[in-house]
Please model this.
Amino acid sequence: MLKRIVQGIVNARDDEVAPTMWATAYGFSIMFGYYILRAVRDEISSADRGNLQILWTVVFLAMLVVVPLYSWTASRYSRGVFVPLANRVFIANLVGFYAALMLLPDGARPWIDRVFYVWASVFALFVVTVFWGFMADCFRNEQGRRLFGFIAVGSSLGGIAGSAVTATLAQVVPQFSLLLIACVPLEAASWCAGILHRRFGGGEDRARAENQPVGGSAWSGIGVIARSPYLLAIAGFILLMTFSSSILYFQQANVVGNALTDRAARTAVFARIDLWSNLLTVLIQVYVAERVIRHFGVGVTLAILPVVTCVGFLVLGTSPTLGVIVVVQVLYRSFRYGFAKPSREILFTVVSREEKYKSKAFLDAAVYRGGDLTSGWIYAGLAAVGLTVGAIALAAAPVAAVWAGVALLLGKRQEERAKLA
Model:
């Protein structure tokens, strides 16, 4: 019965249903845990918005340490070891944060908040890039085009569940209790990754590539990027995306921070933005994304988000209000995860295993946060010279138009690589 339901939604063959469901459950668990923590992190950004660019600088520096450490682990252990291990390291960190909040005096809370913000920003990208690198290793390019949209639905449903839990509990339980609650889905994700690896990838044959370390060194994934025009184009796409995301994020922090003074109320608003974003994302992923990818290709699907973002900046430029920022953020996030996310992950189905794990981790983590860092200081500079929220939004619109052009170019290159493969 479950097989019939799944095949009624997604174009999956009989032997693909089980791995698709385990992959979907993995994505659900990861995003359930992340969205419990996301609203807590975003509330800190509004409370400490004057220091955001400094915090983002620290996040970038932290990424330069974490990514080589992860690459070193991938060089020495199989994916069946290092993928679950990454999740469990973050679980241990959450327990440590909870202990610090319980045991340290109230005067330490601002610094704990800042450390948690940096940690959560690293966590947000890292667990997701590990998940999608694993998916690109488990599924071929042709399978990714058919299945990644559905697998992404699990992530969105996890985001809905996490947002709903946070919106319900944020004003009922102590805020730091949410950290322990997030540990449960993260452990479930570790089990799903292990099952997916053993039953539908690596198996028991130690001679298979999936059961071998990726190889190389802690820094080899970075060198590959420098020599690959394709990966450099992906880096350009990510930098332009982070610029747009960062501008919207800073505008959200300022508009919401000025409109609402109560911290619990702000946390609830951020959770509801996440909730509506994920509801719309699920509709796109279930009914639209796979069809758009199949009929129009990866490039056009990637370009949808930049076009919508450009329009959003123009509207926000003329009316920078709380209602407008909420609508623009909901549309941006839903189109990003509904269209751009599955199509961007398809780009990695036509690269080597080292590129799927190591280069992808550097692109999705260090390059992404490097873009955040640069964009954060750009925003701070524009604000310092007197530009308003609306003026900055209008200045960002042409950048989104360039982003759309890069998306179309990437789609063309991916098609060429897929044909060669």
Observations:
- The CA atoms of residues 221 and 399 lie 28 Å apart.
- Residues 2-420 form a domain with the Growth Hormone; Chain: A; fold (CATH 1.20.1250.20).
- The chain has a mean pLDDT of 83.
- The two ends are 35 Å apart (CA to CA).
